Amino acid sequence: MSSSETLTSGPSAVHASFDTILVLDFGSQYSHLITRRLREINVYAEMLPCTQKIAELPFKPKGVIFSGGPYSVYDEGAPHVDPAVFELNVPILGVCYGLQEIAWLNGRCVGAGEKREYGPASVTVEKGLTNKNALAFFKGMPEVFDVWMSHGDKLHGLPNGYEIVGRTDNSPFAVIAHKTEPILGIQFHPEVTHTPLGKQLIKNFALEICHVNASWSMENFVDKEIDRIRKMIGPNEHVIGAVSGGVDSTVAAKVLKEAIGDRFHAIMVDNGLLRLNEAEEVRQTLGEYLGIKLTVVDASEEFIGKLAGVTDPEKKRKIIGNTFIHVFEREAERIVSETSGKVEYLLQGTLYPDVIESISFKGPSQTIKTHHNVGGLLADMKLKLIEPLRELFKDEVRQLGELLGIEHSLVWRHPFPGPGLGIRVLGEVNKAQLEIARKADHIFISEIRAHGYYEQISQAFAALLPVKAVGVMGDKRTYEQVIALRAITTHDFMTADWFDGFSVAFLKKVSSRICNEVNGVNRVFYDISSKPPATVEME
Ligand SMILES: Nc1ncnc2c1ncn2[C@@H]1O[C@H](COP(=O)(O)OP(=O)(O)OP(=O)(O)O)[C@@H](O)[C@H]1O
Ligand SMILES: O=c1[nH]c(=O)c2[nH+]cn([C@@H]3O[C@H](COP(=O)(O)O)[C@@H](O)[C@H]3O)c2[nH]1
Ligand SMILES: NC(=O)CC[C@H](N)C(=O)O
Ligand SMILES: [Mg+2]
Which sites bind ATP (predicted)? Predict the structure, then answer.
């Protein structure tokens, strides 16, 4: 979602207003959890790749955490920090690979262990500790505590200037601390919930060793952000915003509305791939609840025309993404001519996970799907981006939405992808197929709401499969299509489970309503695939 030039936060009030802990990512699948845990205790944290040049840091952190990682520090080509990080003179905590990195840079005392250690272990704090930073790190902790390990390498000695302050049966160097400097390393992972007191340790590092002011909260964030945006835009300019009715763009739009009032122009594109009554409902709710005037641009013929005859999912996604760009280009021109004002900025609802994905040390992962990308507008339209949510996780966005008084149902809406029904009608998309998918989806979601399942599920939809099956209706043979129902639960949409809470009676009702009410369908399947190996959407 975010282009490479926006990897770091750019001009932001955040660092000026909140003490920041920097997490340097060595590619662990848990790296972002460190950031999460800090935010949960009201400490602002940001993650950057471990290769970040310290001289180019856009802010001065109050402390640095080195994450875990899949590599071995002694391997050729293994990632290493810019040694200048030690000259920042701020506390450092190394986690797993991070600990090994500290040991490697200070005496090369790391090698492959005889035994790999995955799972639970128990740390015993050294008796009679006098190390000031270790005492601060263990503040409020019992002498023995459970932790979760995941490593194959280990320290085979102490790095210069360090001492052991905690050990486990298998790891004599489970917790080490520099004798005088505030630098610590731990072999276990405090960020995972399997380390029950891990959050306390992270808190101790941030508050007792880095002495951060733990003031990060949505309340504190929002006023500053609105103020920053207002100043950035100035008193005369207009801003165009792509608004879908989804949580992210709705909250972002509300922030802009607060900042610049009617100089914010919300645009929703009716791409013909929306759900039943969606454009009208979004127009009403945004107007009614948020006082935002939304222009719905009907571009359905354009989208559906361009999709004619295309069956390849990636081609479909690219066509949809590009067509969005054309529509926004035209809209920006229209606003310029109607207001005779300047339109320099485009609002986008980019979230922190989108940013994290693009900064991870692991580098660009293989493209599974091309997400339709309003960020593509950047190059084409010469518009600058305003991304008020680019530092936030989804649950923080929801919190912010509630704080801004956005109606509950809008804040807790399931996500709906930009390409919409275009990727839920599998294979070729045309009006007739869209109509079938739209009706089936409406029945499924209405029943989910009626049965009180909506908030137990992270996302649900019906998809139309491009296959036909034989059936019998009113004594007549039918040869019709198949609807697949999908409902998932997930924390972050990176992995997901299929929802296993539907009652049999519910499934019977949905299936019977779809077959009876939607012409062209004679079978209904329920998708019981998790992600991975499946994905949430089917295309
Ligand atoms: N039909 C649409 N009209 C205008 N903009 C759209 C449309 N669909 C998507 N977008 C833009 O694409 C962005 C990304 O879509 P995405 O679905 O990830 O976010 P969202 O719709 O705001 O929230 P949610 O993830 O809850 O659906 C949106 O924030 C919005 O800016
Ligand atoms: O705005 C979007 N534009 C897209 O192109 C897109 N593709 C998938 N999704 C949503 O992303 C989440 C994960 O979906 P997948 O497991 O199918 O990748 C799910 O919530 C999907 O609905 C999209 N959202
Ligand atoms: N989880 C980690 O950081 C693992 C670090 C290193 N690759 C090891 O196996 O010890
Ligand atoms: Mg959406």
Answer: 244-250
Q: How many angstroms separate the first and last alpha carbons of the chain?
A: 18
Contacts 24+ apart (CB under 8 A), 77-80: 79/26, 79/27, 79/50, 79/51, 79/361, 80/50, 80/104, 80/105
Q: Pick the catalytic residue: 189, 238, 265, 372? A: 189
Q: Residue 410 and residue 412: Cα distance in Å, rounded?
A: 6
191 noted as active-site residue: yes
Cα 349 to ligand 1 centre (Å): 7
Residue 25 counted as an annotated binding residue: no
For ligand 3, whether the C-beta of 68 sits within 6 Å is yes
pLDDT digits (tens, 9 = 90+) for 137-148: 999 999 999 999
Show the domains of the chain with their CATH numbers. 14-209 (3.40.50.880), 218-412 (3.40.50.620), 431-526 (3.30.300.10)
The binding-site residues of ligand 2, defined as CB within 6 angstroms of any ligand atom, are 369, 371-372, 415, 417-419, 459, 493, 531, 535-537
Q: Look at strands 63-66 and 162-167 and give their pairing.
A: unpaired
Kindly provide the ipTM of the predicted complex, given to two decimals.
0.91
120 — pLDDT class (breaks 50, 70, 90): very high
Does residue 511 have its Cβ closer than 6 Å to ligand 3? no
Catalytic status, residue 391:
no
CA distances from 478 to 248, 337, 485 (A): 43, 55, 21
For residue 333, indicate whether it is catalytic: no
**pLDDT per residue as tens digits for the range 393-417:** 888 899 999 999 999 989 999 999 9
- Determine whether the annotation assigns residue 245 to a binding site: yes
pLDDT tens for each residue of 247-304: 999 999 999 999 999 999 999 999 999 999 999 999 999 888 888 989 999 999 999 9
